[in-house]
Amino acid sequence: MERITASATKIINVKHQLQKERRRLFISRVLSNRLIIISAITFILLLVVSLLAPLIAPYSPLTMRVQDRLQAPSMVHFFGTDNFGRDVFSRTIYGTRISMFVGFTVTIISAAIGTAVGLYASYYKVLDHILMRICDGLMSFPAILLAIIIVAVFGPSTRNVIVALVIVFVPSFARIVRSAALRIKERTYIEAERAMGASSARIIWLHIMPNALSPLLVQTTYIFAITIITEAMLSYLGAGVPAPNPSLGNILYDGKIIILNGWWMTVFPGLMVIVIVLSVNLFGDGIRDLLDPHSNNSK
After folding, report:
1. Which residues of the chain have pLDDT under 50?
2. Closest CA to 265 of 14, 102, 73, 2
């Protein structure tokens, strides 16, 4: 009996050592991946700036000072002023805040709904035919066109932009999760769970879903970046966040009219969109390389 207890203790100790070694290797791989570190730091800084916008912005983004209109960048107005005398630096910070809010909200809701749709479509053949045909129909429209149609029906507002983009991006998540879940569903341990009498909900959410998270994480970063771009495009076209609320898109729209006399109205908000999207995309590439060693080795 003592030998059995000692053997069991040794096995437990070995398991703990293996777990510690895996964690150490994972952390070392993360720290050695420059894409993840640089992009994560950049994105966190942008997120902090957007959250602390009321403390960082030197002026109100809505206050108009006609006497200060179209002032070039200076120590008083870092990004200059627009054609209404509003501080472009303050409006860019608040516009980043709105873009981040829309990006996070759309990505989280779309991922939650898309994951549920993809999992149930992969498990039930009847639902698969119904749900995937609906997704095919939504994906047959260009994303920006479908979003414009939805916003045009309900009217331009931040809430309606979020609803429109959620409808647009749910099929992408559903497709990714369904593809991963179909492979996992055929594995031996899933068959063993069925043979032991496990319920469908238990199999779907406790065994299939956790193993389908890797492609979902990469898709999440991609959708977040696309959401930022699409929201800016909608606002630029007048179908997004309504004026005078600052959005990176409607700041660019205001700047296009006077781009020759006020280049800073398009350059700085445009650079902000580029930095946000680039940092998120690079972070997604780093996560993909981390979760898929074959793609990393193939470079």
Report:
1. 296-299
2. 73
**Number of domains, the chain:** 1
Structure tokens at 258: 């006077």
Which CATH number is 256's domain given?
1.10.3720.10
Beta bridge partners of 210: none
Measure the CA–CA gap between 249 and 297, rounded to whole angstroms: 39
Nearby residues of 86 by Cβ (< 8 Å), 6 or more positions away: 59, 61, 62, 63, 64, 65
Structure tokens at 131: 């749900």
Asked if 218 and 236 count as a contact pair (C-beta separation under 8 A), the reply is no
Peptide bond into 244 cis (omega under 30): yes
User: Is residue 68 situated within a structural domain?
Assistant: yes
* Residues spanned by the domain of 234: 59-297
Could you give the C-alpha distances from 43 to 35, 221, 224, 277, 279, in angstroms and in order? 12, 12, 12, 9, 6
Q: Supply the Cα-derived Rg of the chain in whole angstroms.
A: 24
Judged by DSSP in three states, 87 sits in strand
pLDDT confidence of residue 215: 82
Distance CA 237, CA 253 (A): 8
